[in-house]
Amino acid sequence: MSASHTLSQGIESMEVTTVSDRLSRKLVRNIKERAIEAAMFAAASISVLTTLGIIWVLVSESYHFFEHVPIWIFLTDTMWTPLFSEPRYGILPLLMGTLTTSLVALGVAIPLGTIIAIFLSEFASPRVREVVKPFLELLGGVPTIVYGYFALTVVSPVLQYFFPSLPGFSMLAAGLVMGVAIVPYISSLSEDAMRAVPMSLREGAYAMGSTRFQTASRVVLPAAISGVLSAYILGISRAVGETMIVAVAAGMQPNFTMNPAEPAQTISAYIVQVAMGDLPHGSVGYQSIFAAGLSLMLMTLFFNILGHVIRRRYREAY
Amino acid sequence: MNQKELAAIRGTIRSNRRLDIIFAVAGFVALLIGVMAFVTLFAQMAYNGWERLNPDFFMNFPSRRAANAGILSAWVGSLLVMLVTAVSAVPLGVAAGVYLEEYAPKNLITDIIEINVSNLAGVPSIVYGLLALGVFVYAFGFGQSILSAGLTLGLLILPVVIVATREALRSIPIHIREGAYGVGATRWQVVRDHLVPYSTPGIMTGVIIGMSRAIGETAPIITIGALTFIAFLPPMPISTTAPFVSFDWLWSGFTVMPIQMFNWTSRPEEAFQQNAAAAGLILVFMTLMMNGVAIWLRYRLRKSISW
Questions:
Q1: What is the pLDDT of residues A235-247, one digit of tens each?
Q2: Which of A50, A182, A303 to mutate to test the interface with B (most CBs of B within 10 A)?
Q3: DSSP-derived 3-state class of residue A216
Q4: What are the two backbone dihedrals, phi and then psi, of residue A271, each rounded to the nearest 5 degrees?
Q5: B198 C-beta neighbours (distance < 10 Å), count
Q6: At what angle do helices B257-265 and B72-98 cross, to 10 degrees?
Q7: Which of residues 74-113 of B touch A (CB under 8 A)?
Q8: Alpha-carbon span B222 to B131, nearest angstrom
């Protein structure tokens, strides 16, 4: 029903209704407005319920897990062998796998992403930017399982050609591809931050005789640093939580090492491995994926909070 | 100024200019690496998977023999899961976005909701899978069904839809609202007859980007326990006998495209890698199409709007 229709109907009926009718109609309308507002508030609260649900599920299942496995053994044992007859639950090997693949990925993504962002924001012509930005967005939209396939069937063999001792599954191959997968996030957010720097700052730098690179590195980048750093933080959370690339290409054995040339398992890959098998609901093995998930969640939460702090601390206002 | 100083200054200028050019080249090379990675990825999959892309591949169930295996159950599963995702995430996300932008008072609860939405966007997708495993699969008893998977992905893309809705609403000038309120419209009438219709293209962009992310998500769906070998289709949603519409498919077991691809990728045989390549090609093509439509919509939007 269109607005004008409602309106004309209202005017027509107004002539024949009494005051009390109109009052009650207003009451009905108010109730309807209130009900709609309440329904919308309920929809908005779903997001809070999601967070509470995540916390509840992770904490309650982990609680049962820690009844079987003392928390200090979980944090200090260097073996993760939940499927053995004498299972040991030390998160350290998985944690090191996660950290190593993330470090390799960030070693690719941060330099590449930053350089691309500076190039697009300060060097490229508007036409180049118009073409490249959507392309980067497309790159960011490729499903991670496809990147995993790429890591396993292209990058691993190529690396093995150069380093024959490298195994078929390695954290290096997974990390490198993960880095490429994260580049679009970092470059696009950093570029947004740099473009938000006021033109007057650039004009000042150019008027002093700076080159584009000097302007970019000494004026624009420092002014945009809070946005750039939060782009890095987002990249870190992505790398830590990334699942399919490492599940496909990094191998599936927990490995207490930080050597990227070895295969290893990450926290997320372990969850996938257990979920693909059929561990009974309520067993320690089933609960262990929630403890692993809780560790993962705490890590990303830490980085998210760090991101907030950095944004507050380094924000430049113009 | 003597000759020596002049030469020194010229030298500085020259080296700065050189640095400038070196960086421009570095930027170009960095971009080229990105482009090359994408082209290699696509070319390799096309080369490996091309010959598997025939009608049989779309109409066959997975099989122990690679040459007979197809993606029928996977694409039907993906389609149905996406349906549940869209039906759950779009109304909820739009309503939440409208609430936060148009209704919400400035108070603590609103602040909590806003911070929460931005934090949810940073939660790893596999954690959503754990949430769904604990809540949808066991606490609600939905089981390892299309319903569980669709709702999980719905929650996952909810922040995307909310943010897109808010941005679209924010770009509508205030005088549209004032005009509508001025002729006596209620808040809901303003939202229903003006704000939502005008922000539809912006919302659609967000929805499509969210859906293209959901269609490629593998980890959360594996976590809720989707099967990897499905040789049946869910029950038909439409039947010839009364009541004509059935929702039994919501409770059915399922597999989706990325899981099928994961399954084939993890097998050592060359022939299955070909199937994986073909499935990946279709998956990339679908996400590219969806992203392309979203980018085009946004481009159109930027050009055509005049308030």
A1: 998 999 998 999 9
A2: A50
A3: helix
A4: -60, -45
A5: 17
A6: 130
A7: 91-93, 95-96, 98-100, 103-104, 112-113
A8: 13
Residues in chain A: 318
Going by C-alpha positions, the residue among A296, B98, B282 that lies closest to residue A288 is A296
Q: What is the pLDDT of residues A175-217, one digit of tens each?
A: 999 999 999 999 999 999 999 999 999 999 999 989 999 999 9
C-alpha A299, offset from chain centre: 12
Q: Which residues of A touch B194 (CB under 8 A)?
A: 3
Segment A158-173 shows an average pLDDT of 89
At A1 the pLDDT is 41
Contact A299, B123 (CB under 8 A): no
Contact by Cβ (8 Å): B290, B205: no
- What does the DSSP assignment read for chain B? --HHHHHHHHHHHHHHHHHHHHHHHHHHHHHHHHHHHHHHHHHHHHHHHGGG-SHHHHHPPP-SSGGG---HHHHHHHHHHHHHHHHHHHHHHHHHHHIIIII--SSHHHHHHHHHHHHHTTS-HHHHHHHHIIIIIIIS---SSHHHHHHHHHHHHHHHHHHHHHHHHHTS-HHHHHHHHHTT--HHHHIIIIIHHHHHHHHHHHHHHHHHHHHH--HHHHHTT--S---S-PPPSB-SSTT-B--GGGGS----HHHHHHHHHTS--HHHHHHHHHHHHHHHHHHHHHHHHHHHHHHHHHHH---
Report the 10 Å Cβ neighbour count for B155: 26
| pTM (whole model) above 0.90 | no
287-316 in chain A: CB under 8 A from chain B: 289-290, 293, 296-297, 300, 303-304, 307
- Tens of pLDDT along B228-264? 667 777 776 666 666 666 777 788 888 889 998 998 8
Average pLDDT for A26-44? 89
Q: State ipTM.
A: 0.87
Residue A238 neighbours by CB under 8 Å, 6+ apart: A182, A185
Tell me how far apart the alpha carbons of residues A149 and A162 are, in angstroms, rounded to a whole number: 20
Does position A76 have pLDDT exceeding 50, yes or no? yes
Residue of A nearest to B98 (CA): A40
Q: Which conformational region is residue A118 in: left (phi greater than 0), alpha (psi within -120 to 50 degrees), or beta?
A: alpha
Distance CA B31, CA A30 (A): 57
Radius of gyration of chain B (CA): 26
Tokens 């809720």, located at residue: B224
pLDDT tens digits, one per residue of A88-140: 888 899 999 999 999 999 999 999 999 999 999 999 888 988 888 888 888 88
The alpha carbons of chain A give a radius of gyration, in whole angstroms, of 27
Structure tokens at A113: 């992403």
Q: For the segment B179-204, what is each residue's pLDDT rounded down to a tens digit?
A: 999 998 989 999 999 999 888 888 99
First and final CA of chain A: distance in angstroms? 46
> Do A159 and A172 contact (CB within 8 A), yes or no?
yes
Rounded to an integer, what distance in angstroms lies between the CA atom of residue B113 and that of residue B120? 10
Q: Is A207 on the interface with B (CB under 8 A)?
A: no
Q: Which residues contact A298 (CB under 8 A, 6 or more apart)?
A: none
